[in-house]
Design a protein that fits this description.
NADH Oxidase, 6 helices, binds flavin mononucleotide
Length: 189
């Protein structure tokens, strides 16, 4: 790919709140995942792991979502449970991004977290560049003890996102280019 094309893809990337079947096939997904691990990583700690959830396994995730919402809710129970469970079916593939904190004098936790975030962003970008779509969500599920326990997230770990992945709708949002001067400036002192 020419760099111009790459930059164009990066500038057009967008999230899709609904993703459809089919997801990227196993081979393509594998290629994207391998490439995504080239994200910067201070001291090469690889302080992360990712769980892929698809097909029938989404039922179990949906049940965790429902259990969590029931736990924190005071409203009408059955509707809440149904709505929460369906959230696991908003895409054919869900990738749970987990930072696994390591004790390291030189690499504080915040650096480890953003190293993990870089991988998730890379996956989303690779998925988009391949003609599919994704959206990174956390909501209150990411910090839920019920969801954490169900996914066997350890005490030294945090869920930093659920990347919902699938085929994207045909229509994309028309993006307004960001005003770069609001965010970038050359230092002139
Ligand atoms: C750490 C993180 C958590 C997010 N959590 C949510 C979320 O729970 N729900 C949501 O609708 N969007 C969430 N977003 C935002 C979407 O991923 C997306 O960026 C946003 O909808 C804007 O769309 P765009 O990526 O096309 O600009 C989150 C983004 C990040 C980086």
């Amino acid at each position: 790919m020419m760099s111009k094309e790459f930059i164009k893809v990066m500038g057009n990337r967008q999230s899709f709140s609904r993703l459809f079947d089919p997801p990227p096939d196993t081979k393509l997904m594998k290629d994207i995942l391998v490439a995504s691990l080239r994200s910067p990583d201070h001291m090469g700690l690889r302080p992360y792991r990712f769980i892929l959830i698809s097909g029938e396994q989404r039922n179990k995730l949906g049940e965790l979502f429902a259990e969590h919402k029931l736990d924190i809710s005071v409203d009408e129970k059955s509707e809440i449970s149904h709505v929460a469970k369906q959230k696991a079916f908003r895409a054919p593939l869900i990738i749970v991004g987990i930072v696994s904190f390591q004790e390291n004098q030189r690499v504080p936790r915040w650096e480890q977290k953003i190293a993990a975030a870089g991988v998730i962003h890379n996956i989303g970008l690779g998925v988009y560049a391949s003609g599919f779509g994704s959206i990174w969500r956390t909501g209150d599920f990411a910090s839920s003890d019920i969801v954490r326990k169900g996914l066997k997230v350890n005490s030294n770990e945090e869920i930093i996102g659920f990347l919902y992945v699938g085929s994207r709708p045909e229509k994309q949002r028309k993006l307004k280019p960001a005003a770069i001067d609001d965010f970038f400036s050359y230092w002139s002192d």
